[in-house]
Design a protein that fits this description.
This protein is α+β, with helices and mostly antiparallel strands. About 15% of the residues lie in helices and about 20% in strands. The chain has one domain. It has one helix and three strands. It has a three-stranded antiparallel β-sheet. The radius of gyration is 12 Å and the shape is globular.
């Protein structure tokens, strides 16, 4: 679940509970209907903006191990 940021306020960036102490994670934030994804090690490097269908596809790919790269 991505918690929605309040309109007019700074984005609420979150990372997975299993990644809280690690520095090699992604962070997500909701901005209206979009989900933003960024590298936690380089937050100023930019972000991906995903619509709801793209977000669901990404989650499905992660859960299915399609992005493991092993």
């Amino acid at each position: 679940m991505v918690y929605r940021s309040k309109r007019g306020e700074a984005l609420t960036w979150r990372k997975g509970s299993r990644s809280q102490s690690a520095s090699d994670c992604v962070e997500v934030a909701a901005d209206g209907p979009a989900v933003l994804v960024r590298d936690s090690r380089a937050p100023a490097a930019g972000m991906l903006t995903l619509d709801s269908a793209e977000w669901r596809a990404l989650l499905r790919a992660v859960r299915n191990g399609e992005l493991d790269g092993r």
